[in-house]
Specification:
Length: 311
């Protein structure tokens, strides 16, 4: 996710960090691991429902936080409950829909749709953080929407979005709101209240994410599929990969500009599109390829717009 998926513990700095030579490599490793996580989820989705995979991923995150708490002597006291709950619920819903979309439409399509989150976060930042959109932000939205329509029409041979493609778009919208919530928790408040720490934001994401996905694995809304030993190994691996990818992304954020990170994260989309085609035989038509380029271009435009004047 940009998270949604993109975006679990993204810190917000008031000044741009100074980029170091290792930061792009760290961010690139994070993007590759997020792609690997999505590929593992796709493999599991043949026998394990997507929502169950998402739930286990969150549980692994909760366990990682509980282990790190005493080892690193973390301060997990929350200060901004409203934004933390918003981050957890919307982030959890985004991951839930993302993994369900991976199961239904394939890893490449699901990741492409989910990683349009930065475009939607521009809109939510305008509504809730009073940040006026950057100049030409509307171009980013137009390119992204046009690309999504072309991608889905190339797959479904119709100009209408199917229900699972709509779920993928909705996962990006929820992820965009989660990103906005993260930014709010990382801002200095007017009364001088300190911002939330990275682990507090991550803990809220995993805790409320697990609560959000829990109803989908128990009756009456869902059911639990008993995994085999091999599937348990893959489920644990999927969760661990996501935690490591998140930690690498958080590390790179301290030494890499937001624009640089946003561009590198699109590597996840490219890798999953190629992986879905090579490993799982997910077809890429000419129309879908053109749409993918437009969609990625729209997201990159929204990222680059952070350096443009507001207005």
């Amino acid at each position: 996710m940009y998270k949604a998926v993109f975006s679990d513990v993204t810190p917000l700095h008031t000044t741009q960090p100074q980029q170091t030579s290792s930061a792009p490599l760290t961010a690139l490793a994070s993007a590759a691991l997020f792609a690997l996580m999505a590929m593992v989820a796709r493999q599991l989705s043949h026998t394990i429902p997507g929502p169950q995979i998402a739930f286990v991923r969150f549980i692994v995150g909760v366990l990682a936080t509980l282990l790190a708490w005493p080892m690193l002597r973390l301060d997990l006291r929350p200060r901004r409950w409203g934004w933390l709950i918003s981050r957890g619920i919307f982030g959890g819903a985004a991951v839930l829909l993302y993994f369900h979309c991976i199961e239904k439409v394939g890893v490449g399509m699901a990741t492409l749709l989910n990683y349009t989150a930065p475009v939607w976060s521009l809109m939510f930042a305008w509504l809730f953080l009073r940040e006026r959109p950057r100049r030409y932000a509307g171009v980013a939205l137009a390119l992204t929407v046009a690309g999504v329509v072309l991608v889905t029409s190339g797959r479904n041979h119709t100009w209408r979005l199917g229900p699972w493609e709509m779920a993928g778009v909705l996962s990006a919208v929820f992820s965009g709101m989660a990103i906005t919530s993260i930014r709010a928790t990382r801002r200095q408040s007017p009364d001088g209240k300190p911002s939330e720490g990275n682990w507090v934001v991550f803990a809220s994401f995993t805790l409320f994410g697990s609560l959000t996905t829990l109803p989908t694995v128990i009756s009456p809304l869902g059911h639990w599929v008993a995994p085999t030993a091999h599937e348990w190994l893959l489920l644990a691996g999927c969760g661990l990969i996501s935690v490591i990818a998140q930690l690498l992304m958080t590390s790179s954020l301290g030494r890499l500009t937001a624009v640089g990170l946003g561009i590198i994260q699109q590597v996840t989309v490219v890798l999953t599109l190629l992986g879905g085609w090579i490993v799982f035989g997910e077809a890429i038509t000419l129309l879908s390829a053109v749409g993918s380029v437009l969609t990625i271009g729209g997201v990159l435009w929204s990222v680059l717009a952070e350096r443009m004047p507001r207005g």
